[in-house]
Amino acid sequence: MSSNGHSAPSSNGKSSAGVNEHGEIRFSYGGQAVIEGVMMRGAHNAAIAVRDPKGQIVIHEQPLNATLYRGRIARTPFLRGIVGLWDALGLGTRALMWAADVAIGEEEEVNFNGPIGWATIAFSLVLGVGLFFLLPTTLATGIARLL
């Protein structure tokens, strides 16, 4: 339910989200800041809105791979978390790269499906997880053993 007590219908007239055990509509939206804009993610699509150097708002929409969140992996707690983290980090990295290109005024279409794009995303994800998860965990474990 939204704050005014009404559900938000989708284009086909049905609710765009699931219903929880209390019969309330559960929305699956999130987002992050990107350079000169914002990226918002729903259950099926993501959209990025960025201000270009001329002051215009440039919008990019893309469908999301919903098959990642179905099946056996989606029901396995640890694997579900890894897949969700990988998907969120990948989407966030692609959004930041696109926003940076728009913010500096590049006109060409950026394709992240090539080997260089995938290598950049993989390196970014490994670096991010290593710096912000593995390194602090390792340091905390080492300090705890010393104390």
Helices and strands in order, then pairings?
Elements (H helix, E strand, L loop, with lengths): L17 E2 L5 E2 L3 E5 L2 E5 L3 E7 L5 E7 L8 H4 L1 H27 L11 H32 L1
Antiparallel strand pairs: 1-2, 3-4, 4-5, 5-6
Task: Give the fraction of residues assigned to helices.
Answer: 40-55%
The coarse silhouette is globular
The strand line-up of the biggest sheet is 3-4-5-6
Strand-residue proportion: 15-25%
Number of helices: 3
Beta strands, count: 6
Determine the structural class based on helices, strands and strand pairing: alpha+beta
Output the radius of gyration: 19 Å
Major β-sheet profile: 4 strands, antiparallel
Q: Which series of helices and strands comes N to C?
A: EEEEEEHHH
Distance linking N and C termini: 49 Å
Low-confidence stretches: 1-16
Chain-averaged pLDDT: 79
Give the domain tally: 1
3D structure, described in words:
The chain has 147 residues and is an alpha+beta fold. It is built from three helices and six strands; from the N terminus they run ββββββααα. The strands form two sheets. The protein has a four-stranded antiparallel β-sheet. The relative contact order is 0.09.
List keywords for this structure.
147 residues; alpha+beta; 4-stranded antiparallel sheet; two-stranded antiparallel sheet; 3 helices; 6 strands; globular
Summarize this, please?
Helix content is 43%, strand content 19%. The chain has 147 residues and is of the alpha+beta class. It has one domain (29-146).
